[in-house]
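fold-stage: in
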Amino acid sequence: MKLDPTKMKDWEIAAEAEKNMKTVYQLAEELGLEKEELLPYGHYVAKIDYRKVLERLKDKPNGKYIDVTAITPTPLGEGKSTTSIGLVEGLGKRGQKVIGALRQPSGGPTMNIKGSAAGGGLAQIIPLDKFSLGLTGDINAIMNAHNLAMVALTARMQHEFNYDDETLAKRGLKRLNIDPKRVEMGWIIDFCAQALRHIVIGLGGKKDGYPMESKFWIAVASEVMAILAVAKDLKDFRERIGKIVVAFDKFGNPVTTEDLEVAGAMCAWMVDAINPNMIQTIEGQPVLIHAGPFANIAIGQSSIIADYVGLKLADYNVTESGFAADIGYEKFWNIKCRLSGLTPDCVVVVATIRALKCHGGAPIPLPGRPIPKEYLEENLEWVEKGCENLLHCVNIVKKSGVTPVVCINAFYTDTKDEIALVKRICEEHGIRAAVSEHWLKGGEGALELADAVMDACNEPSNFRFLYELDEPVKDRIEKIAKEVYGADGVIYLPDAEAKIKLIEADEELRRMPICMVKTHLSLSDNPALKGVPKGWQLRVRDVLIYRGSGFIVPVAGDISLMPGTGSDPAYRRIDVDVETGKVKGLF
């Protein structure tokens, strides 16, 4: 059957493509993996033993490292994952040995409005149902590890409330004096469950826990997930797990998972999860799926370990950064590259005509509703105005000293004049740009993009960080606000001021990189402001401390660590064919 994305839904395309999937054994042979390095989960999904691969190939030079980011997206997204997959397919069509390294999707967006981030059209990864519904269980392991820390905390608080010091000592415990008003962690679940954002636990009698306010976050906002993304090996992972600050005591001292004697057990849940997962594109190129932290509320990157493996196994390793250049690429640049020691050879900035129109004045499209008719009509004025946002995002990449390539992620509804206008504006600013029709044509449609990327990878780069870790915390936040977002300055609310004083007084904390929490829908902290907002100041209302993952986390604007489920979620259309067991309706 001919695969036609203009007539077929994504899950229908995936189902057809899966009939001709390569087995993981074939993928492993093509990558040059040895038998004991492949850890199969059935015939079409596997984990890779990262330690054995990296030890065997430690003297092999790395391949080219490509990051995919984007302009500020609409609420519908701009096909960044689709472009990453399309680029992998395009490089494969050019005969290159290529591998992708992408994040694992959360069950929250998969069952809600955004979908599973498996790509779309003829640029997808398969098997779609396995990818979208838990894969090899890494997120379940993260939930178990994270929630075990909360079990340890709440049990300890109950016992300290019920017993005196002598009784605690008989059980081998010393009083930690945990302050119930300063519990930092909450529970996690891998769904968008707004009803669990603010809860009360411990109701009942003295054997039912300690009564206090608590909360749930979405699983991909867990610090355990962030640690999976940034850990370089199991030893590094174990050390970071033990540094997670669960709460503070009544004297203001941090209480860690190591203090609760739960860090080792948390790590035990993660021993298998630390190995990257391998699946494939619908054209048969391998893709590593590992870690999945949210981007506007976490680091938004796939794992460092997956990149280490991909760069040894292939000539080109394509990864992506969550959301736009102001959030995803900034964190890739100043956090992930700093921790991994890797630097990109090229950065792709994805733009759609739809998003450019949105930044140029068109009505904002909303998930679950028909796209406004204005997006189906040519409007060169809106496109040209919207290119201000594109140029701003390209300049963010240029600040890092890496060569950018603009990918015009073309749809069959775009007009030739709209696409030509964007290419002309890029050329006028000396920016390499390529049109890609991977959604419609797969790898064949991404050849122009693949050629531009290979060309850019041959240019010398002058990679440099935006800030140094010995700079004061406020100076670093303000550099991000002014030089990346385009703000005039930063306003700190009282809670943020107090946290920054605490951080500056701690030699270890003050030298951690900055991981901003901010809306992805605007360069500013106000999602309604499109284009390149002027005359505004970033409002930092709080600063979280992720001691385990090693981040200082300023929170700007009204961002929740537990998203909500909309009125028309995807789960209304997902079902199972009871004759075959195949899942349908995923996207």
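fold-stage: in (second)
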Amino acid sequence: MKYWHISLLVVLLSACQQNAKTPAELQLTSKQSTAPAVQLSIIKSTKDNRQYQSLKLDNELEVLLVSDPSIEKSAAALSVAAGSLQEPENFGGLAHYLEHMLFLGTKTYPDVNEYNEFIAHNGGTENAYTELDHTNYMVSVNNEAYDEALARFSRFFYEALLDEQYADKERNAVHSEWTQKGPNDWVIMGQLDGYTLHPDHPISQFNWGNLESLADKGDDKLQAQLVSFYNKYYSSNLMKAAMISNLPLAEMAELAKKHFGKITNKHTAQPQIAQVVAEPEQLQQIIHYQPQTDMKQLQVKFIIDDNSDAFAVKPNVYLKYLLGSEMPGTLASTLREMGLSENLWASANPSEYGNAGSFTIYIELTETGLKQRDLIVGTVFKYLDLIKQQGIDTKYFKEIKQSLSNSFQFKEKIDDYSYAMQIAADLQKLPANYVLSSDYEYQRFNSQAIKDVLAQLTLDNARIFYIDKDQPTDTGMDFFVGKYSTSKITAQLNQQWQKASEDVALSLPTPNTLMPENFALVKAEFTDKPKTLVSEPGLHVYLGHSKYFNQPKGSFAASFNTGLEKQSPRNTVLSALLSRGLNLSLTTLQSEASAAGMRLRFGSFNGLFLTATGFTDKQAKLLEAGYQQVLNYSVTQDQLANLKAAFISDIESKKKHMLLNQLFPTFNNIVNLDEYSDESLLAEVAAITPNDIISFRDKMLKHATLNVFAFGNYTSEDVVKTAKSLQQLLPKNRKLSDIYLSKTLKPAAGTVYNWQSNSDMTDIAFGDFYLAPYDIKQHASARVLQKVLRPALFNQIRTEEQLAYAVGFFNQALTEQLLLGFYIQSPAKGPAAVADRIEHFKAGFTKQLAELSEEEFNTIRNSDVISLTQPPKNLSEEESVFKNDWRKNNLNFDSHSKLVQAVKAVTREDIIKLYHELLAQEHFGRVMVQMRGTNFKDQAFVEHKDAKQITDVNDFHQAQLK
């Protein structure tokens, strides 16, 4: 998320003159340095009106200050140049464990819950993460609490208690996080990557942390290692910070000195890794991995030299652009058209291993592709050879440069918490003057830099991952359920790959035809709320303009609304298969749009929908091209077989998702009365034919009401014209109906429903959800109650009792219902035992809530008002308020403004009353969702004497709809 400055204009203007370069000049260009041009100030976007200053404190801590008078919340982040790669060999996860321990009190603020509670009560957010090469801590609060928040936050880094009495509790928290995320295939493959590299490189070590790795090893004590790691690496000269506030830069500089200037400079040397990440014996390998889900993927991964400092000439970006292009004839397009892949992309992390980087090509395979791996691998290397022979060309440089320049010139803000986090991390690798712009800098074409990377993308330097359920495995993984095996890439296998792909024709990308050319701005008329432009049978059109952002961007959503897909399990399956197939057919168009600064999305929800976002110049062309492809779509028997396999795979794989990621979809499946059980969907798949898919598309369009919502840089005339052009492509004599909205469960007050299921995962998950008819006063009260309850729940259940890494309380406005809920995933106790502890907390919280002072309440409520009324950071955030109303068919577009007024009127008595009503269950219906993992198969579920058991979702829904 980077920005630019006037000084970049010189670079952009000079780039426009490269058409006339001679071969001699191009040769000179190829020999240029990869270093960026010297800059004397921080480069930012011309649209960025914030002020920036880089400051180096006396203790050598570098801080980037960002002054933005328009913001209501201030943020800070601090990164330390030490992460998992710096951990001692016998204590895997120590850096992660230390990150957790820092939140548990400092000498000045020893109360373990004080920091979390202070941040929550002042409208804030706090968190941290541990990466391989750095650890990053973040916080945001209301502006008036910034000084006090910094006083607490900064002390993490020079007076942390690291209290041993919380050691076991926080070890359990780290262990819970590992058990929650450890079964995820991407987590496992991250560890597998390290296991199959050089065993003496720190990347090979287990770095998540659990109760076994974070334990005393004889006389080698965990606490001593923890303190030693903190004393060594938490030195101000290894730290970078970002501060964002409404204050002037001079005042921010004083705050930086006051708080971060106290951190001790221990003059610790920058961490270095001497061991190479891979010797020849770790390369030229196939790594066979058997995933937990029904994942089907092929990865071609290369070790590359760290070229992070070449961001100004972007060799990695150049190659990712060519490899990921979906233009006809390219690698991605060809494999997709052959029915071998669903998606292909490339990524590069030039410093992934600390002293080297990686470049990876990812290919998501179809069922057909699983049987054609030789052809696919051979085609990948054939395309790399084509790039080496013909692909180093200034025309691609210009196209990429134009795309990056457009994006940077009109770059929108993100939330300040995320912005501070990103800056603090990026400062560890980038000079301050380029920290905002580095992702968008493409200062000159350097063919040699590209050739240098290409020279490393060879079979000799490759490791190829075969990933699917049928892969042979012979090796387990410490602390992970994953299994794998390795085999050598032989000359014979290479010949086999080449022969399999010899008849595949490939070509490099053709020019992009969607690149925006007109950045003119329209007059903003409808800034208070969207206006109805058309409301007639079969067509509804609404347009809103931004009150805050003058940008040539917008979002145009066209919903072809119908309830047809929700009428039966068969229709739901037909809709899902059609949606997946159409998305594949639109991939080329979507890829071209993305490079041009637009996004085309297609989906199926209460009918088909198309959405175009980004630059508005050629959106109408993009939408019509997309819709024409919908009309022209056809599917073969082989293509349908791949679509069916993917659909079945998605459903089966859900059983291996993190339990919280199963809990909420299960709840949604219960409360949305027009959804169906997975079993009933799977039963419909086999009988569906290609003709069924096309007939269903035609039937959906014949019943569709076109419902359009546009927001941003559009005239009324342009929006109506685009909407009418889409309408004209719809079938004539359509069978029109009112806008279809999903039907949701409306449980009677006092009713309790209970869903229980056993899971293949090890933990348990429990959701305790409360529903009542929507009342805006209750919704406002619930928002304020959440800010009091959630930190108390976290402190009791997670910090003190260590029952879970993930536990929380939330509220949400459904279409006609108010939802409040408790949730937890635990590796510690069974469902009934965990529910009992939450009930115990709920009873005890009554007293804590009663002791809430009027002053504390006012602070918390006012924090929520600030959250609701602070200016939006970007166009999408501004639009979302109105778009949510459009989706719910609230055409007054006033739900947000009403909620603001309701929150302002909330009293302390209101939240106490709501909480007592929640406990009494006299005004709420209740849905309990329980998932019991294998470690607790003998532990009891929660049983409620009056509960109605849900055993079949379809039967339950039919009973509710009678």
